[in-house]
Specification:
It is found in: Cell membrane. The protein has helices at about 1-5, 10-20, 20-55, 80-85, 130-135, 155-160, 200-210, 225-235, 245-255, 260-290, 290-300, 305-335, 350-380, 380-385; strands spanning about 60-65, 95, 95-100, 100-110, 120-125, 140, 150-155, 170-175, 180-185, 195-200, 215-220, 240-245, 340, 345. By secondary structure, it is α+β, with helices and mostly antiparallel strands. The chain has 2 domains: about 10-50 and about 255-385, no CATH class; about 60-220, no CATH class. Strands 4-5-10-7-9-8 form a 6-stranded mixed β-barrel. A two-stranded antiparallel ribbon has the order 2-3. Helix 12 runs antiparallel to helix 13 (about 350-380). The longest helix is centred in the first third of the chain and has 35 residues, at about 20-55.
Length: about 400
């Protein structure tokens, strides 16, 4: 009985091809709306993943108490790594090597061969202990830097607004009055380190005429070891140190970007809302041009509910096709695109969450966008609708 009341499924499908120009325009508009949603969600997800990937709960950052949360302005004595190793139990060790990384961190103007103006870059002076503590760092190309050399993160070019080719292995970068040869390119699982330039610590201290450090990163055997490092910093008040778990440090950074994420979701809602209104407008035009056809179907005995479902079916099919096109375009064009922000750079991420949100918005556009014009068309008397032009 229900099958007799409904129009055939392929009736709605064939209708899409009877008006190819109108269907193509509607499909293009819906694809753009869904793609915009995908880009905004990709921005939010990329930022969240970058900050989450940077923090390790077993790693403790020790920096100057007076610097607040700004490591760039931190200055601690150069003997701090040795004091920590000798005074704190639970520091991770393998084959007699302690996982303690002294680091000098600064923001400075960096120039490459292809840049007309130097860009603001992030430089970290490190030793060979850095990869032990930063377990996510992997050398993707080239070799560890020796004297006069640096290695760059794979997103450093985005932070500097430079061409990617300028930061290839063998290229040159200049900062603080010295030219450095790029010995390697590293990646770090999408974390903020990927936008940095790493140089040998001792040579960087010589160039900067500094003997102090910005911080010490210590890898502990367990999360409980963080409290031991914090106790050491509280007892040695002469050193004026502060200890924070790396995961907590970057979690606090996420709070600073919470308004940005909220704004992003607001943009998603606005784009979806404007897309629904655009869909309403398109569907109104499509339904108005088919009033005679719809009235004829009623005259043939099809119920209004069946005709209404067919109109929703057509709109939903177009929206689903738009979602597929937008997701393919997003994965191909948007996923992995580097974006600058204050802490460095991150990559837009088109993941399962973004695809789910995009498909949900597309379904909403298809159903909600088709219902109002379809309901309005169904309210016209059959005789009056058949006589209409």
């Amino acid at each position: 009985m229900l099958g007799q009341r409904l129009l055939p499924w392929d009736y709605g499908v064939r209708n899409l091809f009877r008006r190819p120009s109108r269907s193509a325009l509607t499909l293009g508009g819906l694809t753009i709306v869904v793609l915009l949603v995908l880009v905004v969600v990709g921005f939010i997800r990329g930022l969240e993943q970058s900050l989450a990937a940077t923090g390790n709960p077993n790693v403790v950052l020790v920096y100057a108490l007076s610097s607040g949360a700004d490591i760039e302005n931190s200055s601690i004595p150069g003997r701090t790594p040795a004091l920590l190793s000798a005074s704190v139990d639970g520091v991770r060790r393998r084959h007699g090597v302690e996982y303690v990384s002294p680091e000098l961190y600064l923001g400075t103007r960096v120039a490459t061969a292809g840049m007309s103006e130097p860009g603001m870059g992030l430089v970290r002076g490190v030793t060979t202990a850095a990869p032990l503590v930063r377990g996510q760092v992997q050398l993707a190309e080239g070799a560890w830097p020796q004297r006069g050399e640096v290695m760059v993160g794979r997103l450093a070019h985005s932070k500097l607004s430079a061409a990617k080719e300028d930061l290839a292995v063998g290229g040159k970068v200049t900062f603080d009055g010295q030219s450095w040869t790029i010995s390697g390119v590293f990646k770090a699982a999408g974390s903020a380190f990927e936008s940095e330039i790493w140089a040998p610590l001792e040579e960087l201290q010589t160039v900067l005429k500094r003997q102090d450090l910005s911080m010490v990163a210590v890898s502990m055997e367990s999360v409980d070891g963080v409290a031991d490092v914090d106790l050491f910093c509280r007892e040695r008040i002469d050193l004026e140190l502060k200890a924070v778990a790396e995961s907590s440090y970057y979690a606090s950074m996420q709070k600073h970007y919470k308004p940005v994420r909220m704004l992003g979701w607001v943009v998603v809602a606005l784009v979806a809302g404007s897309g629904i209104f655009a869909g309403l407008n398109t569907m109104y035009g499509a339904v108005v041009g088919r009033i005679r056809e719809l009235a004829t179907l009623q005259a043939l005995g099809f119920r209004r509910r069946a005709i209404l479902l067919t109109l929703v079916q057509e709109a939903t099919l177009l929206a689903c096709a738009a979602a597929i096109l937008a997701c393919v375009a997003g994965i191909w064009l948007v996923d992995g695109t580097a974006v600058r922000f204050t802490m460095g750079a991150f990559m837009l991420s088109v993941d399962s969450v973004g695809i789910a949100v995009a498909c949900g918005v597309a379904a909403l556009l298809g159903v909600v966008g088709a219902l109002p014009p379809a309901v309005k068309a169904m309210r016209l008397p059959v005789v009056e609708a058949i006589k209409s032009i």
